[in-house]
Design a protein that fits this description.
about 170 residues; alpha+beta; Jelly Rolls; 2 domains; 4-stranded antiparallel sheet; 8 strands; about 25% helix
Length: about 170
């Protein structure tokens, strides 16, 4: 397990951490590391200055083409411990990070990219993407409202005029 990867954040302003990662399990049949949905990574962040108070617990799979993401914003300055723990059927069958699988390379390979800095700067790219998605959702909701109005109009046209039904007894 990767443990005690410690970093500290500044005192004057809350900084953030944006991480992307990709976990791959060793495939002994092909002799390569491959992404699989059977491998999950649990990420925890603890404040070592506050009796190892856990402030983040997140578990996600890292299968697929795109790397998984995690974010953390420090409310208080001090040393924070980041822990990455493999779990899931693939991790259990391979014996975790340092098993004999992978020609002595371990059973799980974790590739990470970390950006430490002000949260607003780190998240600016994500905000642009989210704004784009929000715009598309609003456009789709407008189209849906137009369709509903058209359906109501068509029902009114198709229904007989009020009072035209007579009871012939």
């Amino acid at each position: 397990m990767v443990r005690d990867s410690e970093t500290s954040w500044g005192r004057n302003h809350p900084d953030g951490l944006l991480g992307t990662y990709r976990a791959e399990a060793y495939n002994s049949q092909y002799g390569t590391f491959e992404a699989t949905n059977d491998l999950s990574i649990q990420i925890t962040v603890e404040e070592t200055f506050d009796n190892d108070h856990r402030v983040v617990t997140q578990t996600s799979t890292s299968g697929g083409e795109k790397p998984s993401k995690f974010t953390f914003s420090a409310a208080d300055s001090g040393v924070h411990r980041l822990c990455f723990t493999p779990s899931g059927p693939a991790a259990a069958s391979l014996g975790g990070w340092f098993s004999g699988a992978g020609n002595g390379l371990g059973g799980v390979r974790l590739t990470m990219d970390l950006a430490i800095g002000e949260s607003s700067k780190i998240e600016s790219d994500d905000k642009t993407t989210i704004d784009s998605i929000v715009g598309k959702v609003r456009e789709l909701n407008g189209r849906l409202a137009d369709i509903r109005r058209e359906q109501i109009f068509q029902r009114v046209l198709a229904s007989p005029p009020f009072g035209s039904e007579k009871n012939h007894s």
